[in-house]
Specification:
The protein has 226 residues and is of the alpha/beta class. It contains nine helices and eight strands. It has a domain of 141 residues: 3-Layer(aba) Sandwich (Rossmann fold). The radius of gyration is 18 Å and the shape is globular. The model has no long low-confidence stretch (mean pLDDT 88).
Amino acid sequence: MAGGVFDVTLDLFPGEIVAVIGPSGGGKSSLIRLLAGLTRADSGTLTLDGRPIAELDARDYRRRVAMLFQQPHMMAGTVADNLRLPARLRGEEDNGLDVAGLLRSVDLEPELMEREAATLSLGQQQRVALARLLAMAPACLLLDEPTAALDPVSTQTIVRLLQRLCDDGVAILLVTHEIAVARRLADRVVVLVAGRVVEAGDVDQVLVAPQSEAAQAFLTAEGAAP
């Protein structure tokens, strides 16, 4: 158990998107913070490529398993400064970083690189935050409500970018309260209620024909039940 999460078993594979849904206070954020290494489990094992993370270098783990928060958290300075931040935090040279290429990878114009990051729209900032993670070439992305504060157009842009990353082999764990986003993006869905997995399986299995009463009650409350 860690932060209100109990007996959770979860696998995530390259090129796969797993959505975690459930009511507020159900343990979604606690789970993703645990997976990001921001909190520690009282028991159980978390592994990466079959190795317990306790055996891995913490910096290497956080580079390979990167987390995108609901709020973009732009650092003071330009967009380029933000994209160079991961290398600087690791004490590495960043002169060879392809800032323009990173911006194009998230459908932003390279001309934005010299703009103050704080002056961008929220949707643009979220894409810069995603590009900042991509600069680390992570194998896995943990996304905590990445579209929650975005307008529909920005949401569709983020959805399209995540689909592209999945096609490139990145593993993605998506915590979301937006059932439509989970339905469009996910290969599998996990329903977390009161810190426990009450339903897990393929998208159609979970969202169309949930078996547990807890999952049925949640989806009905969300207006997503068939």
